[in-house]
Amino acid sequence: MPLIAAYHRPDTIDEALSLLDNSARIPLAGGTIINADREASDLELVDLQGLELNAIEPVGDRLRIGATATLAAVTDSEHVPDTLRDLARRDQPASIRSLGTVGGTIASADPDSTFVAALLVHDAQVELAGSDDTSLAALLESGIPAGAIITAVLIDPSGVTASRATGRTPADTPIVSAVARTVGSTATLALTGVAMTAVMVAPEDPTNGLNPPGDFRGSSAYRLHLASILSARALEAVR
Length: 239
Hints:
The chain has helices spanning 13-19, 71-76, 82-91, 94-97, 102-108, 114-121, 136-142, 220-237, and strands at 6-8, 25-28, 44-47, 56-59, 62-66, 125-129, 134-135, 149-155, 160-166, 176-183, 186-192, 199-201. The chain is an alpha+beta fold.
């Protein structure tokens, strides 16, 4: 655990929002990111586990996944589309999946998260307490509003979805991945490893406007090359 100044465990959303109306307090879900910090700080943790936000259930023609549902729970849920379950499993090792939450995964906005990319192509809408609900794409671009809490993400579970990825090894985090989905004749496509977060791109021209940062795993040009090839393969798999 990080060396924190205080710990709070609210029982209601209103209590949690009241506690978070203080810049020194931050929400705690699974703790897989915050708990990795061993440095002393003045931060206070607001534990969301008591709010019972972990249900995964159909709501009309959409699927509602609670913010504190773990990635392991997503992997095991019969309500979740198969590709989304598989990408939740691939996103983290088993020890992290049992703790890491859907809300925490969204909040961390990992640019390499294929699970977040899959949520994007499934038309994910994010429920926020303390702010207006928004699309996942908009939330990744703007960040979570101060004092707000992710309570759930709603997706359209219909359609056909496929992913393609390239990493240094099959078990490694992909350098670039593409997740495609079709509903009827309409295709959507999201990429990882080409921007600061997973991003939606145009299926007909997936690399347009992208300028991915290079690192030891691959240059910007190499990532663009992968994005083009993997996008074509993912789209072919759903058509």
